[in-house]
Write a structure and sequence with these properties.
2 copies of one chain form a homodimer. Chain A has one domain (about 50-190): Orthogonal Bundle (Tetracycline Repressor, domain 2). Chain A has helices spanning about 1-20, 30-35, 40-45, 50-70, 70-75, 80-95, 100-110, 115-140, 150-170, 175-190. Chain A has about 190 residues and is mainly alpha-helical. The interface between A and B is large, with 53 and 53 residues. Chain A binds a DNA duplex (30 and 30 nucleotides) through helix 1 and helix 3.
DNA sequence: TTGGCAATTTACTAACTAGTAAGTAAAATA
DNA sequence: TATTTTACTTACTAGTTAGTAAATTGCCAA
């Protein structure tokens, strides 16, 4: 059982990395199998279909995010630090072989992924946006963030630019991504 | 020759739409062939490889953008109107069956497209960013845009959020995209 | 020690992929 | 009118895809 859990987790880890690197339709069972040194039927044992594998990846990603934001080490942070933590997630993705945001990757492939994955993508995106909007509102009430209009509107701008920024950085380099983050900090804090 | 041009142009048009809808690896020669009522060998006659087809699509897209921005009807516009024109391009994509930006689509698939397409993607992205940065700088000098820091930095924020906003809208709806555009207008003009 | 279960491999399939070679009908050219 | 070129079609290939059924291995409990 412990060995099976290892394989299953290894498959999930690799599938997640591949989705952020090549997209859901950009990798195959053969990629995973050869990388892990197993046969592709082994993957089908743990995940009956590619749709199920993709769904499990997004579900785990969502669970992890909820675990983080509900953990005191993030939850009890002041708004500025919360936002820096959030930006840090994306900076880490960029540093990790130029990965892009899982939500952005799935949205780009939205019209060529199974329906259940589209639903997962919507749920994930909603969760990211809700947390960000709440954090922005908290910071504005505390007088540390400065912006006009609905917090959800500002949150959608920030989230979309982080997603887009990771993609832009693939074409124009990491500096482009950091420029996005720095510009946001200036816009919000000044 | 006129008939050939028609087929060739129809292939390019459809390939461009498919790349913005499903991504470069999300469509096949069979899609194009059946839609146009020709055999897939006919596509290979006009474009020897899928790589060549994709390259031609991006090249035409780049040429079209340069033609637009150098045309007096855009070039002689005041900065605010120029920016509105630019935003309008993206709004039109969203309205056209939820297409995403070609550059964003290719960047997401960056690690699973041929090298020549990566080069085309870089060139396209550079051209979009340069024009936007120049327009922002022009507007700031004219006193109509208000932002701090390097214009290229602000341009990378706006471009990445437009790209990301079109993707976000697939998951959360068109309102999300318009929220991004409206927030930018407020941030810049107030 | 034996029966059973979990995890895996072997061996396969059907569908789809881009790409090719050879042939054809019609139009342009000489 | 003869020849060449353009714009295709027919018919095919080799490789890849997700997915499946059946056999096999290794551990664990009765």
């Amino acid at each position: 059982m412990s060995k099976s859990s290892n394989t299953k987790r290894a498959i999930l880890n690799l599938a997640e990395a591949l989705m952020q690197d090549k997209g859901f339709n950009g990798f195959s069972y053969a990629h995973i199998a050869s990388e892990l040194g197993v046969k592709n039927a082994a993957i089908h044992y743990h995940f009956p279909s590619k749709e199920a594998l993709g769904g499990a990846v997004v579900q785990r990603y969502r669970d992890r995010f909820q675990l983080w934001v509900n953990n005191p080490s993030v939850k009890d942070l002041p708004p500025v630090k919360k936002l820096e933590w959030f930006f840090g997630i994306y900076s880490d993705m960029r540093a990790d072989k130029g990965k892009v945001c899982l939500a952005g990757s799935l949205e780009t492939e939205f019209n060529v992924i199974p329906e259940s994955l589209r639903a997962q993508t919507k749920a994930l995106t909603n969760e990211l946006l809700s947390w960000l909007a709440a954090t922005l509102e908290e910071g504005r009430r505390a007088g540390v963030f400065h912006f006009t209009g609905d917090p959800t509107r500002k949150a959608s701008l920030i989230l979309s630019s982080l997603q887009g920024g990771l993609q832009l950085a693939r074409a124009l380099g990491t500096d482009m991504f950091h420029a996005v983050v720095e510009q946001h900090k200036q816009d919000l804090l000044v």
